[in-house]
Amino acid sequence: MLSDIDTKQGDLSIRHLNTPPAKQTVDGVSLASEASGRCSVAATIIAPALRYSINTPLHDLAGLIGLLLDGELSADQRQLATLAQARADDLSLVLNNVLDNAACGSGAIALRPIAFHLQQELDSTINASQIAAAAKGLDFLFTLPTPIHRKIIGDPERLRQVIHNLLHLAIQYCESGRVVLALDLKLDTDDVCELSVRLNTSAADAGSIRLNTLFKQVARGEAMSQPQHAAAHLSFSICIQLLELMGGKIICEQDSDQNNCTHFSLRLPMAASMLPGVRVLFIDENADSRCAFTQRLAQHGMQADGVDGTASALAALDRAANGNLPYQIAILDHQMSGIDGETLGVALKSDPRHRDILLVLLSTLSRASDAQRFARSGFSAFLSKPVSAQALLNVLEPLAVSIALAKPAPFISLEITSPPPVSASCEQFGRYRILIVDDQQSSQLLAVRSLQHLGCQTEIASNLHAVSDAFAGSGLHHDLVWINCHMQVMDACQIAAMIRSAAKDSNPIPIIGWNPDAAPQWRDKFCTAGINAFICGQLRPLILRACLAQWLQSVDSLATDPVPQERDDTLDELDEIREMFGSDFAELGTLFLTDSPERIKAMRQAAAQGDAAKLGKIAHALSGSCASIGVSAVAGLCKQVEISCKAGMPAGILAQLAAIEGAYGAVDTRIRAMLV
Question: pTM for the complete prediction?
Answer without folding.
Answer: 0.49
